[in-house]
Write the structure tokens for this entry.
Amino acid sequence: MNVSVDPICIEPGFKIYYFDMVYSYPHVLEIDLLVAFRGGVLLIELEREGLEKLAKNSLKFFLNGLTRYPVIYFYQSRRGKMLSSDMANVTISIPIVMDCPKLSDETISNNFFRDDIQRFGEARDKERPEIFAVDNFLCSLLLYGAPLICQKLLTDIFMKHIIESSELAKYRVEVIKEVKRLGIIKIGRENLNISKKHIDDSENINVKSMVTFIPKLENENLRAQVAQYIKKLIKESPISEVRILHTKESHKHAEDIILEVERCIRRDVNVTPIQVERGFITTKIERLITNELKEDVILLIIGEFPKRELLKLIDVALSHPVKLRLLMWRPRIQKSSGEAIKDIRDKCSLGEVEKPELRAVSI
């Protein structure tokens, strides 16, 4: 039986990163097509090889606990290409992984390429890198959040302030409210304006000195990524002094990073490890800035900086002529929404849409 469904939003290349992404290389749940409608969502996977790998590929939804939503598979038939412009001549076979209604060809063709969905894709392409953590949180609420939890979180004063700063975030919230049935919300597609705000994460950092603190970083790959970024920063700027602070507990992880950095940097760059007590990190940094480095300094925050020290560090940064950056994961967009749609229509395949990388973001 074919059921007519009018989606609120159909998004290609839908990704959710787990929340330990600040501390380790981010694991990701990737969905080829997410169809959102009032009262629920539908997950669509695109397969080019038919049913033989279906059972194995389905495991990701069970391993991630995502079993309460319908998951269906489209695979390219012998008679044509999936979602091509001439739907009348195409046969789409839909093996049902979970018990759910079958979408009709007419539903897909009528709703997938609407102008409002394409405009939303443009907003996502431009704003997602700038509000990455917020967008990831909202995407997680969309799939995992219970209605009552969503309602409480989205009406929180702090969250409302963050959401109001981005058209993409406001759009996500409207979709969440529709999916969770939190009231009939008119999604303002006609008023969807792409934000012109810009968060400074430029790689052009012109400084002579760098100070950073290495916390415990248990993930080996993250340590390698941090070392790689520090090497890149030194290579692309006139840095000659690097002070790397660590505690007794994080000494081994700091040592791993320092050895990797020293292996590839210029001989005129002085890298100095300094062990400090956890409660005196900011005090030591301020002394370095005031008495030794003085000017053209960047403070680079990595991983889980002690919260009480972080607040003091911000005060130090505001009272001295230094740059303060946070090293965090941001998506490097590899494929626009328009390109993703074209691949889906022509190839019945999506491929990699974005890849996260460490960037030094101004705070």
